[in-house]
Amino acid sequence: MWAYYSCRSCRIVFLFPGPAPAELTSAYQDYLPVQEAAIEQWHRAMEDVIQSSADWIEKEAGKPGRLLDVGSGYGFFLDCMSRRGWQAEGLEISEFGRAFTRKRFPGIGLHEQPLFQCAFPDRSYDVVTLFYVIEHLPDPVGLLKEVGRILKPGGLVLLRWPHSTPIVRLLGPLARGLDLYHTPYHLFDYTRSFLERTLHEEGFSSVKTLVLGKTRPASFLGKWSSRLMGGLGEFLSHWTKGRWLLPGVSKTTLAKRPYSRVEK
């Protein structure tokens, strides 16, 4: 029986006991919808997030380079960055996700193994992106360490992550029926302070968290909720330069791998 607990020290919420890695890999083969209508709806839902993230990356990076999208799904973000002049590669463990990407966007490079098994060379990428990925993985600290290893000096990491716990606490017993944690796929629900502190501890600099883009769900209620809460979240984030972030709204955390004195 799975249950979620909150750490009294760092305040993150975690699933215990968690599924074995082999169970998760197997489960993700059926994680992505395969119906064409559902795929197009997913694209429409994420389009604002994709474009806002791409704009921010280009603002921070300055010029196109080599990009790795971990958990690239159907490849829509890869296509967006490729059309902007980036050498975009994806990493996706779902066989259907890779097949769809290859058919829809031929020529985009794809990797099928989990990140830790790919053994990318040190300093391989200018940007590494993870959209709704870090909450699925059992070792967030190891993940950020590996991302830091494969980033070039001055390289950028972008993490987009859900912030479900405030909504779960607000709704109380009603939250059980909504499955906001997507059990057993979400192993963690993070806080801003935990992710920013961990990035600093792993040697990243210029760490900041924003509300960047909003999803557009298909349902009427979801669509208006996203417009209201997502729009308010974006406004507060922009107006306060990231100091005030609306609880319960998905966040984007960005950080850079700093240069050493020799690398400068």
Account of the 3D structure:
- The protein is an alpha/beta fold and 264 residues long.
- The protein has a single domain, classed as Rossmann fold, CATH 3.40.50.150.
- The chain has ten helices and ten strands.
- Strands 5-4-3-6-7-10-9 form a seven-stranded mixed β-sheet, sandwiched between helices.
- The chain is globular, with a radius of gyration of 18 Å.
- The chain starts with a strand and ends in an 8-residue tail after the last strand.
What is the CATH top level name? Alpha Beta
Number of helices: 10
* Helix content bin: 40-55%
CATH homologous superfamily placement: Vaccinia Virus protein VP39
Corresponding CATH architecture: 3-Layer(aba) Sandwich
Order of helices and strands: EEHHEHEHEHEHEHHEHEHE
| Computed structural class | alpha/beta
Query: Spatial order of the strands in the main sheet?
Result: 5-4-3-6-7-10-9
Arithmetic mean pLDDT: 89
Major sheet attributes: 7 strands, mixed
- Tell me the radius of gyration: 18 Å
Give the overall silhouette: globular
Assembly type: single chain
Distance between the amino and carboxyl termini: 52 Å
What CATH calls the topology is: Rossmann fold
* Tally of DSSP β-strands: 10
Total of domains: 1
DSSP strand content: 15-25%
